[in-house]
Design goal:
By secondary structure, this protein is of the alpha+beta class. The chain has one domain: Alpha-Beta Complex (Maf protein). The chain is built from 5 helices and 6 strands, in the order βααβαββββαα. The protein has helices at 10-20, 43-57, 97-108, 175-181, 183-199; strands at 4-5, 64-73, 115-127, 130-142, 161-163, 168-169. The longest helix has 17 residues, at 183-199.
């Protein structure tokens, strides 16, 4: 059985395959044009939108997984939130994640409040109106400044996200450590149980 993942992000694909312990297909694997406009106002809405959009263009009836995730920083009123992937890209300019991390730190400056969380909403869609959705978080803090950016692992905002209990950023964790505690890891474990109950995987 093919399980589809509604993303073209190879990092996310590899991470979720490890969490689910199964192989996934993404649109770019099959040369499919998949770039839905994320018009939802919540992580859950965007995840469901992406799952439904991919289901619409697929020629098989396999299940579709989609997620929407982002970084919510308390001192910024929850920003960048659902706009995490497009943070700082007003006016059509493209930024690398290193640029976004530096922009985030510059925006926070010396603010004492550094609390933040990663949020992941994940959908397992069987049919348009038959789906499961879960949302999980990972609590942490934003590092103090540019000199505190650490780690070569992970991707995205991982180098600026500190796990206080470990004294390390997400980018300093091994893939196994990250998957055991991350927002996507937690959500993926719920989805794995649902898949097992439906398909004995």
């Amino acid at each position: 059985m093919k399980i589809w993942f509604a993303t073209n992000n190879a990092h996310k694909k590899a991470e979720l395959e490890a969490i689910l312990d199964t192989s996934l297909k993404i649109p770019s694997d099959e040369g499919l044009d998949f770039d839905p406009e994320e018009t939802g106002t919540t992580f859950c809405e965007n995840a469901l939108l992406k799952a439904r959009e991919l289901k619409k263009i697929l020629k098989d009836d396999g299940p579709v997984i989609a997620d929407d995730s982002g970084l919510c920083v308390d001192a910024l009123g929850g920003r960048p939130g659902i706009f995490s992937a497009r943070y700082g890209e007003d006016g059509g300019r493209k930024l690398s994640y290193n640029d976004k991390n530096l922009l985030l730190l510059d925006e926070l400056k010396d603010c004492a409040q550094r609390s933040a969380r990663f949020v992941c909403a994940m959908v397992l869609l069987f049919e348009n109106d038959r789906f499961f959705i879960v949302q999980e978080t990972l609590e942490g803090e934003i590092v103090k400044g540019r000199e505190s950016l650490r780690g070569e692992g992970g991707f995205g905002y991982d180098p600026v996200f500190l796990i206080p209990s470990l004294g390390r950023t997400l980018a300093e964790l091994s893939a196994e450590e990250k998957n055991s505690l991350s927002h996507r890891g937690k959500a993926g474990k719920h989805i794995a149980k649902i898949l097992k109950n439906n398909f004995g995987r």
